Sequence to fold (589 residues):
Amino acid sequence: MTIRLAGASYRYAGAGRPALEGIDLEIEAGRVVGLVGANESGKSTLCLVASGLAPATIGGHLAGDVTVDGRETAALRPHELAQRCGALFQNPATQLSGTTRTVFEELAFGPRNLGLPLAEIVERVGWAMEVLGIGALADRDPQRLSGGQAQLVALASILALRPGHLVLDEPTSQLDPRGTRLVGAALGRLAVETGTAILIVEHKTELLARLADTVAVLDGGRLVLAGPTATVLGDQRLPSLGVEPPAPVRLGRALDAAGLAVDLDLLAATAEEADRAEGGRGDRCGRGGRDDGRDDGRGSPSVSAAPGAAPGAAPGVTGGVALALQGVVFDYPDGTRALAGIDLQVAGGERLAIVGQNGSGKSTLVRHLNGLLRPTVGRVLVGGRDAGQLHVAQLARQVALAFQNPDRQIFSGRARSEVAFGPRNLGLSGAELDRAVAEALAAVGLEAEADSNPYDLGYSRRKLLSLASVLAMRTPVVVLDEPTTGQDARGVARVRAIVATLAAEGRTVVTVSHDMRFVTETAARVVVMRAGRIVLDGPPGEVFAEPQWPLLASTYLEPTLAARVGARLGLGSTPTEAALVAALAVRGR
Fold:
C-alpha cells in the first residue's frame, strides 16, 4: 500500500506556471514522510495532488502519474478516495461540515455517508476520540471550539473514516506544545500498528525529528532535498530554504559559532525529556486542564509587580494602565464557562504574551479587549474607560485585533482594500490613508500583492494580510491571536520584527501564542491560563524557570530547550537560546 508520485507536475487553472514540477515521491505503508519548505513553495498543493483532490475537485492540469495502492487517483471515485486516503486541510474551519450540533455527530458525518452500520459508526467515532484524547468534547458544538480543538476534531473526523493513507497539511499548527506531542505519538502508533502511510506537512521540525522516517524539502514547486530525517533536518541549507532546523540543531550551531563546547548528546537528551515526562496520553480536555472553567484547587501563583508599575506589569513599564480586566467571567450560550474570574492589568507600552492549553480561554479573553465579547460578570477597562459603556467602533480606535483565523476577518476583493477598511473607518483619508496602507503591506511583505484577491493568497499570507489590516489602524493597543500559525522561518522572523517595532513606538502589544520560542523572544511578561483562570504571571525567565515546569505541564505547555539545557547545566533561568549562549560564554571565561 503506497502513495506514489512519479514525474508529477500540476498547474492551477489560469496560472501561468506550474505550482509543482517533476515531483517523485513515495509514501509506503507504515512509513511517515515529512514535507517542509518555505511558504508558497507548493506544500499544500502537493497534499491536494497526493490525496487526489487536485485536479478532481479544484480543476487545473496534472501531468505525470499519481497513484494510490497502484491505482491512478483520477480513476477513483470520491468515496473510494475517501476510504483509501484521508486529507486534512491546513485550516480546520474549512474541514468541518457546519451541519452538526455536536462533535460526536461531526465525527460520525463521514462514516454515515459511507453507509456503515450504526454500531460500526459509534465504534469508529469512539476510537477516533480516544486516539486524540478529545472525549470531553463529544457533546460540544463544533462551532464553539477553540482553533486547536477544532484542529483535533478535524483530524479525528478523518481518522474515523479509517483510510489506509493520511495526507496531513500542518495538523498541529494550532495546538499547544504538549498537544503537538500527543498527536505526533498517536500518528506514530497508527503508522506502526495499522500500517498507515502518512505524508505530513509541518513547520514544527522538532515534531518531524521524532515522527518522520524521511523528510523532503520543497522549493519553488520542486523537491530539492530528500532523505533520512536526521540527515535532512541537519542540513546546513535549511535556513536558506525558509525552514527552521530543530532546536537541538539550531542551538548546537549557535554554540559552535560562539566557540563553546557543549555535548550535543546532552541537547538531544534534554529535548527528549518532555517525551519521557509525558508518561502516557491523557484526555486532552481532562487531565492537565479542563474546559469547563472550574478551578482544580491548585491556586494561582504569580510574580509580584515591580515597584511603581501597574500590578502585574513587567519591570520598568510605567506607562499607566492601558487595559484592565476586573473579575471577568464569561459563559458561552451553550453554558461553557470560558473565563472564570480574570483579574489582569496591562501597562501602556507593555509586551504581554498569553499562553495556555487549547480551550483555556485565551482567545475569549482577548475578544473582550475590543468589545467583540462582553463579560457575563465583571468589567473591562480600556484606557481607564469602562468598555461596557463604549461601542465597538469607539473601542476600535484604541484596540485592534488580528484574529486567529484570517478567513473570519478578510472580506474585501483586493488586499489593498482589505487593509484600508479599518483606517478609513477611523477617519483616515487621502494621502494619509494611502501611506498607512502602503506601510502596513510593506511591514508584512505583501506590497507586491496589493491588487491581489486575498483568497488567491495562501493561508500564511492571508494571516499576514490580516495583520497588515490591524497595523494600518495605528491603534495604541495591538492584539495578535496566534500570529505565527502557518508561518515559515522567514514569516516568524517578520512577525517578531513587527512586534519589536510596535514596542519601540510605545504601543501595547498583547500576543496569544503556542510558540514558546516566539514568546520568550518577544514578550516582557507572560500570563499562563488554565481552565479560564490565570495560574502564572511574570517575566519569561521566571515563568519558564525549572520550579514552574510542573505547573506548565498541567497547562500542556513546555519550557524551551534553552531553558531545559540551562537548568541541567546549572545556569539558572535562560529562556532564550541567545541567553543560554551568553551564559555559557560567561561561565567559560
Summary: The first strand starts at residue 2 and ends at 11.
